[in-house]
Amino acid sequence: MEQKVAGNLVIIGGAEDKDGECKILKEVVRLAGGKKACLVIITAAATSPKKVGGEYKEIFSRLGVPEIKLLNIRDRGDAQDGDLISLLNDATCIFFTGGDQLRITSLIGGTRLNEELFRKYQKGVVLAGTSAGASAMSETMIVEGENDDAPRKCTLKMAPGLGMLEGVVIDQHFAQRGRIGRLLSAIAQNPHILGIGIDEDTAVHVTPDGVFKVLGSQAVTVLDGKDISHTNVSELNPKEILSITDVRLHVLSPGYKFDLKTRRCIGHKEPKV
Prior knowledge:
Layout: E1 9-12, H1 23-32, E2 38-42, H2 49-62, E3 67-71, H3 82-85, E4 93-96, H4 101-108, H5 112-122, E5 126-130, H6 132-135, E6 140-144, E7 157-160, E8 168-172, H7 180-189, E9 194-198, E10 202-206, E11 211-216, E12 220-224, E13 230-231, E14 244-245, E15 248-252, E16 257-259, E17 264-267
Parallel strand pairs: 1-5, 2-3, 2-4, 4-5, 8-9
Antiparallel strand pairs: 1-10, 6-7, 9-12, 10-11, 11-16, 12-15, 13-14, 16-17
């Protein structure tokens, strides 16, 4: 299965640097057009949208974005409201904050706002998301699962995401919260997709050719279940330990590139001189 990518995505594993060099957020600004950028912050995932939106507005203003708008979706009626949706008209980047990814999809999925997001994405507008905003980018997303535990059946809950990136499932705060077990469970149940685990202060920039580059300070883990030779996932009782063999694993540091279509690392960071 080939991944379908329409435009530029910046998918952030959460807890990105906001006070130091801000490498990831600076790259978001650069991709959005720098001093010509118009950035719309969508706070649908947040339980305190005004607070979270205000914090990101201050950060992006400090990084030189001249025009920043806040789009708070409180209910599905807001996601159908033409006046609110019109805030996206001049956007060069749409940024999803963290919170709860199920809030994003339950409030936006299937609405006029969802359709407009796809149109903007297909026309080249940058879509970026951190933490929950990262998980929601894929067509299938992890909603809930045990941290720091061996992979088990029935401890993982998944749901449809926004579908901006097909053929993958994304997990965030990956190494910091010990989430490899739940990502293994995800690909055992869906071996045709790639599992992408993104550490904190780390991101992937996915380009329209289906290649992503690792940004930030930590690592990205890619789990490929296409050639799994055995798994007992269909035979387990609830919460029993999963067995899975012949999973391909890649760990990529900043600067590395990965081709989602060929499922191969295609570029390495230049060595320091």
